Amino acid sequence: MLVSLLRQPRVTLPVVALLLLAGCGSFDNMGNRVSTALTPYKVEVVQGNFISREQVQALQPGMSRDQVRQVLGTPLVSSLFHGDRWDYVFTLRRQGVPPQQRHLAVFFKGDALERTEGGEAMPSEAEFVSTLDNRRKAGKVPKLEASEDELRAAGTRAPAAAAPAEPAPPAAPPAPAGPTNYPPLEAPAR
């Protein structure tokens, strides 16, 4: 009876598919791999001002607002209600990497810098750059400098056989010495 049932095409294909799936112990694992391979592209979102540890260290109490702006750039948030506080916020969201968020608050007393908050957690420029492109494989870096011996050896090599030089084109006729007479831009009215 089972054999006669399997000979019907409508029953055969689903039964064979179920048997194959049931026999595959790693089907759940394969489903996870397929679903992660088919995730949609997510746009990289960068918002705010990146502030490095070096920039925070360049700040000194007593600096004017203009000096602070020259070091850090324009603040992302400056409130009318808190005129003596500037906030620098930086957020980076990338696919496959946990979001990064940094916050630096700069406080003024009058026009002079009084203190900062949040600068301890800022990465150095080198640390930040190393986190940007962690997907690219690091290849062998080529040697970019030549020693004196290598430079001398390169200068003494015989040049390749040069192609026969073509004669130079004739020089353009000399410009007239006097004022040049140009035609009028518009046709005369009749």
UniProtKB/TrEMBL annotation:
Residues annotated as region Disordered?
117-190
Gene3D superfamilies per the record? 3.30.1450.10
User: Which residues does the UniProt record annotate as the domain Outer membrane protein assembly factor BamE?
Assistant: 48-117
Any one GO BP annotation for this protein: Gram-negative-bacterium-type cell outer membrane assembly
Q: What is its main location?
A: membrane
One GO cellular component this record assigns the protein to is: Bam protein complex
Q: Where is the composition biased (Basic and acidic residues)?
A: 142-152
Q: Where in the cell is it found?
A: Cell outer membrane
Its domain of life? Answer: Bacteria
Which InterPro entries does its entry note?
BamE, BamE-like, BamE_dom
Compositional bias, Pro residues, is annotated for 166-190
Purpose of the protein:
Part of the outer membrane protein assembly complex, which is involved in assembly and insertion of beta-barrel proteins into the outer membrane.
PANTHER family found in the cross-reference section: OUTER MEMBRANE PROTEIN ASSEMBLY FACTOR BAME (PTHR37482)
| Family indicated by similarity | Belongs to the BamE family.
Q: How does it assemble?
A: Part of the Bam complex.
Record's protein name: Outer membrane protein assembly factor BamE
Q: From which organism does this entry originate?
A: Ramlibacter monticola
Q: Gene for this protein?
A: bamE
